[in-house]
From TrEMBL, chain A:
Species of origin: Paracoccus subflavus
Main location: membrane
GO molecular function, one term: branched-chain amino acid transmembrane transporter activity
Entry keyword annotation includes Glycoprotein: no
Keywords: Cell membrane, Membrane, Transmembrane, Transmembrane helix
Classification via Pfam families: BPD_transp_2 (PF02653)
InterPro entries, A to Z: ABC_transp_permease, LivM-like
A GO CC term assigned to this protein in UniProt: plasma membrane
Regions crossing the membrane: 21-49, 55-77, 89-110, 116-134, 165-184, 214-239, 251-276, 288-312
Record's bilayer topology term: Multi-pass membrane protein
Descriptive protein name: Branched-chain amino acid ABC transporter permease
Compartments where located: Cell membrane
Entry keyword Membrane: yes
UniProtKB/TrEMBL annotation, chain B:
Superkingdom: Bacteria
Biological processes per GO annotation: amino acid transport
CDD domains, per the entry: TM_PBP1_LivH_like (cd06582)
Any one GO MF annotation of this record: transmembrane transporter activity
Protein's name in the database: Branched-chain amino acid ABC transporter permease
Organism: Paracoccus subflavus
Compartment annotation: Cell membrane
Topology within the bilayer: Multi-pass membrane protein
Family, per entry: Belongs to the binding-protein-dependent transport system permease family. LivHM subfamily.
UniProt keyword terms in alphabetical order: Amino-acid transport, Cell membrane, Membrane, Transmembrane, Transmembrane helix, Transport
Transmembrane segments: 12-35, 42-61, 67-87, 99-122, 149-168, 189-218, 230-258, 270-289
One Pfam short name: BPD_transp_2
UniProtKB/TrEMBL annotation, chain C:
Top-rank taxon: Bacteria
CDD domains documented for this protein: ABC_TM1139_LivF_branched
Record key words, sorted: Amino-acid transport, ATP-binding, Nucleotide-binding, Transport
Domain ABC transporter intervals: 5-232
Designated name of the protein: ABC transporter ATP-binding protein
Keyword ATP-binding annotated: yes
Species per Swiss-Prot/TrEMBL record: Paracoccus subflavus
GO biological processes: L-amino acid transport
Keyword Signal in annotation: no
Length: 317, 295, 232
């Protein structure tokens, strides 16, 4: 199952410092260039797609059920704030922990099958979670949890102030991406890549492959939850849409379009998909047709994604 | 009134019949998925969309051409199969030799496009499809209430599954299909046009999905999204049955339909998720599936 | 006499790796030719290249003066190549009878009576699963099914591999009988004494190249080179 991924190229040292610096600068100026709410949505989805990519790009596991963690964390955070009056940061933490726990359960079942069956299993389990959320007493079924108050972080910083909120969301984004970066470059991450390249060989080298896979799955689920919980604070709503298979499909497309197995690819993919969705929302043409066409095009002609293809060009040049 | 464990018998039998009815659809659909996966190594995510296309083909051909149900039962699956043959030739054939995950993603994209276009054209509301008059009656046999159409669907599905199974296990073309499923390049080197066989196999599996769609049309409403949730349940059925055997796919489909029906009687709240719960349990104890060979 | 099989400058690739570097080889009508070399020298690959089972090929392959290179894979066998692949290639999901009768006929092949005269064991096993046969029975089935198609040239990939000596002897007798009936064969073999007893002409192959060829009468004179090539 190594075919979907791209080996990370070693880059010159300058690039290694320049890229993060550039990104930080971009984070600072972005809310001045576009609607801050839109930028925050982008950041949430970029983190979501990057967390998903930790699994597909760096471990070789295609999860078709990540919406469960994204939307599930959102429900927990929304409920904790609205019904229990929890402080927003704690609520985000709680949502993240809930997603981590869901990841542990789904992962423990799904890693018992490999490859294509893994994908189908995660999809089925995620659909089960969808029905559970639909029926659960606190999610209000089709209506969702609406008008979630943003509150004040630590009881001090008013998050209804859009600048405060932006700083918080950007901070969470940097934190999440930092964790992903650390995981990829840790010894743990190297084992994950060894599993991606050749699972049987990793096993014969003495690694308990299932534990590593489960570990990657849980981390990915937790970070996905972090993104989903944060999104609730931004949009003040938690809905069924975020736990649906369509959402799981969207995040796959973000990864695929941007470049699976590249650090920046999923963020680029998320940006493009979110922009396209926003644009099409005003035309009345069904978004999913366009998304489906992009899926088909990516799979047929563009399997390395935008960033993957660019990186390959640069290496050849 | 007669009861079994506190449940009135007519209710129990009624739900079992509905379970078997749903199981018939699972069986036809998972059979098609298994045949396609066997030869093409593609998990056909578009299977639900093809099922929907079958229902819509029947609905539209009925409206425009005034064809009878019995003609549609043949014509609509053929139309779906022809469409699928094009899909295989124009899209899927490009993915030969790649990771099977790409096939899943491509057909996922295809399902989004097909369902999106139909939603755009016809809206999400369902269209009514008339039940054939000759099958609209009901027979009451003691505690058994038998709506003719449902019984017909169950019998028709069983017949189609058995015929397909026999064709694969007992005929020469079936032997060629099994040989190519086992070793594609060698079968080709021995003189069989395997690319053509793959197109035909995809078309056949799609035709089965289309047939399921026609059979579903008079009972469920014909709507663009009728296949989306169904296909995920069928995926779970396939994971439970294991895709190693044709018989396993059929049997798992029927069994899970029954399990769903029973759940509706015992604990209705769980009937939506029972298949997924069973899948999780099976995976835990038999990762290769009930009828699958160990990977 | 014109060559039955004529291979010139045949090159072959598995994915990116270049494995055949220009094979020149001929088989005359009725002749048995053995291709000898060690593991990984390109023997099996040469046969696979003939059947178009490689990712990429270059060079010329002619059977009876007709080009085989341009044919699609499923048309190659139809020109009269009877391929007995490495490890037999029996389809385990098919019964013995199905395996035997699967391949399309390409010429005037043996009928069932002739097949069972040659391979009496197969008659009793017709309804078994292909995968349940012993190694020797599988080998006989693999040969029998191509004889049924009526090939002009038999391509045999290590027909004795992993078989008990008594079975090897039996297979040797069968191939000898086929040879006496005038069937041409290209034999890939590591078992030198088996090849020597059967073949009229020998080719040595090393690292994807033909490094020598000689007649049966010259085998003794080339014994040292053969030993060095095969590494015994």
């Amino acid at each position: 199952m190594t075919d979907l991924s791209l080996t990370t190229a070693s880059r010159p040292r300058v690039m290694r410092l320049a890229v993060p610096a550039l990104l930080l600068a971009l984070l600072v100026v972005a809310p001045m260039l576009a609607y801050p709410l839109f930028v925050m949505k982008l950041l949430c989805f970029a983190l979501f797609a990057s967390a998903f990519n930790l699994l597909l790009g760096y471990t070789g596991l295609l999860s078709f059920g990540h919406a469960t963690f994204f939307g599930g964390a959102g429900y927990v955070t929304a409920h904790a704030i609205k019904a229990w009056g929890l402080e927003p940061l704690s609520a985000i933490l709680l949502g993240t922990l809930a997603a981590t726990a869901m990841g542990l359960v789904m992962g423990a079942v799904a890693i018992r099958r490999q490859g294509i069956y893994f994908a189908m299993t995660t999809l089925a389990l995620s659909q089960m979670a969808y029905f559970l959320f639909l029926r659960a007493p606190f999610t209000n079924a089709e209506d969702g949890i609406q008008n979630v108050p943003r509150g004040a972080a630590l009881g001090l910083i008013d998050l209804n102030d859009i600048t405060h909120l932006y700083v918080l969301v950007a901070g969470i984004f940097v934190l999440g991406m930092g964790i992903i970066w650390q995981v990829i470059h840790s010894p743990f991450g190297h084992v994950l890549r060894a599993i991606r390249e050749n699972e049987t060989r990793a096993q014969s080298l003495g690694y308990r492959v299932d534990r590593y896979k489960l570990g990657a799955f849980v981390i990915s689920a937790g970070l996905t939850g972090l993104a989903g919980a944060t999104k609730v604070l931004v949009f003040q709503i938690a809905t069924l849409n975020d736990v649906s298979w369509q959402m799981s499909g969207s995040v796959i497309l973000m990864g695929l379009l941007g470049g699976v197995g590249t650090a920046a690819g999923p963020s680029v993919g998320a940006g493009l998909i979110i922009t396209i969705e926003n644009y099409l929302a005003t035309t009345g043409f069904p978004v999913q047709v366009i998304l489906g066409l992009i899926f088909i095009l990516c799979v047929l002609t563009f399997r390395q994604g935008i960033v993957g293809t660019l990186a390959a060009r640069l290496r050849r040049a | 009134m007669a009861e079994f464990m506190g449940i009135p018998l007519p209710v129990l039998f009624g739900q079992l019949l509905i379970g078997l009815f749903n199981g018939a659809f699972y069986a036809i659909l998972s059979l098609g998925l298994a045949i396609i996966f066997g030869l093409l190594r593609v998990i056909n995510f578009a299977h639900g969309a093809l099922y929907m296309l079958g229902a819509f083909a029947a609905f539209l051909m009925g409206e425009w051409l005034g064809l009878s149900f019995w003609v549609l039962l043949i014509a609509a699956p053929l139309a779906v199969a022809a469409f699928a043959a094009l899909v295989e030739r124009l899209l899927l054939s490009w993915l030969r030799g790649l990771d099977p995950l790409y096939g899943l993603l491509l057909t996922f994209g295809l399902a989004l496009v097909i369902e999106g276009l139909f939603q755009w054209r016809f809206g999400v509301a369902g269209q009514q499809f008339p039940m054939p008059a000759s099958l609209s009656g009901t027979t009451i046999l003691g505690p058994l209430i038998l709506p003719h159409y449902r019984v017909f669907v169950i019998l028709a599905a069983l017949a189609v599954c058995l015929l397909t199974w026999a064709a694969i296990e007992r005929t020469r073309i079936g032997a060629i299909l099994r040989a190519a499923t086992e070793n594609r390049p060698l079968a080709e080197a021995f003189g069989f046009n395997v690319p053509l066989l793959m197109t035909a196999t995809y078309a056949f599996g799609a035709g089965l999905a289309g047939l399921a769609g026609v059979l579903a049309a008079p009972v469920f409403q014909v709507s663009p999204l009728m296949g989306t949730n169904l296909i995920i349940v069928v995926f779970a059925v396939v994971v439970i049955g294991g895709m190693g055997s044709i018989g396993g796919a059929i049997l798992a489909g029927l069994m899970l339909g029954l399990a769903e029906g029973l759940t509706k009687v015992v604990y209705p709240e769980a009937s939506n998720i029972i298949v997924f719960v069973i899948m999780a349990i099976v995976l835990f104890f038999r990762p290769a599936g009930l009828f699958g060979k160990a990977a | 006499m014109a060559d039955l099989l004529n291979i010139q400058g045949l090159q072959g690739w598995y994915g990116e790796s270049h494995v055949l570097h220009g094979i020149d080889l001929t088989v005359r009508p009725g002749e048995t030719v053995a291709l000898i070399g060690r593991n990984g020298a390109g023997k099996t690959t040469t046969l696979r290249a003939l059947m178009k089972l490689l990712d990429r090929r270059a060079g010329r392959i002619e059977l009876d003066g007709q080009d085989l290179m341009a044919l699609p894979r499923h048309k190659v066998a139809g020109r009269g190549l009877g391929y007995v692949p490495e490890e037999r290639g029996i389809f385990t999901s098919l019964s013995v009878a199905e395996n035997l009768r699967l391949l399309p006929r390409t010429g005037k092949g043996m009928d069932d009576a002739q097949i069972f005269e040659f391979f009496p064991n197969l008659r009793e096993r017709l309804s078994s699963d292909g995968g349940k046969l012993s190694g020797g029975e599988q080998q006989m089935l693999a040969i029998a099914r191509v004889l049924r198609t009526g090939p002009r040239l038999l391509l045999l990939d290590e027909p004795t591999e992993g078989l008990a000596p008594v079975i090897v002897q039996r297979i040797g007798q069968m191939l000898r009988a086929l040879k006496d009936q005038g069937l041409a064969m290209l034999l890939v073999e590591q078992n030198l004494s088996f090849a020597r007893a059967l073949a009229d002409r020998f080719y040595l192959i090393e690292n994807g190249r033909i490094t020598g060829s000689f007649d049966r009468s010259e085998f003794e004179a080339h014994a040292d080179r053969v030993a060095a090539t095969v590494g015994v």
